[in-house]
Amino acid sequence: MTAVAEVNRGGRPPLPKLPAGPLVEAVRRERKVRGTSLRRMLGRADMQGYTSAIAKGVVTAGQAARLCAAIGRHPRDLYGDTYDASAVTRWLSARSTGRGSAAG
Q1: What confidence tens digit (pLDDT) does each residue in 18-65 have?
Q2: What phi-psi label fits residue 72: left (phi over 0), alpha (psi between -120 and 50 degrees) or beta?
């Protein structure tokens, strides 16, 4: 699986995006297992991320991490090494623009 590049505004380097399909399917499966509604399982903020994933067909590493946490999974379970590469690229981009942690 490979990440999909998407153009960012503001001159920042584009962050890699992950295909939303594996995440959307995992959320749907977990909802069935739990026997609850998506809204109850995800909460308001994660529900917005979920609907955005469906609409756009892609997610950032951060979005994948938040939704996976909501369903008790790790993004690496769904995306393997592609998630790791995307998360590192996101971290490096944040550091290069001064938005990352000062530690390190």
Answers
A1: 999 999 999 999 999 999 999 999 999 999 999 999 999 999 888 999
A2: left
Residues 6+ apart with CB under 8 A from 55: none
pTM given for the model: 0.73
In tens, the pLDDT along 9-21 reads: 555 556 679 999 9
Label residue 90 exposed, middle or buried (CB < 10 Å: 0-12, 13-18, 19+).
middle
Phi-psi region of 43 (alpha: psi -120 to 50; beta: other; left: phi over 0): left
The domain ranges of the chain are 17-96
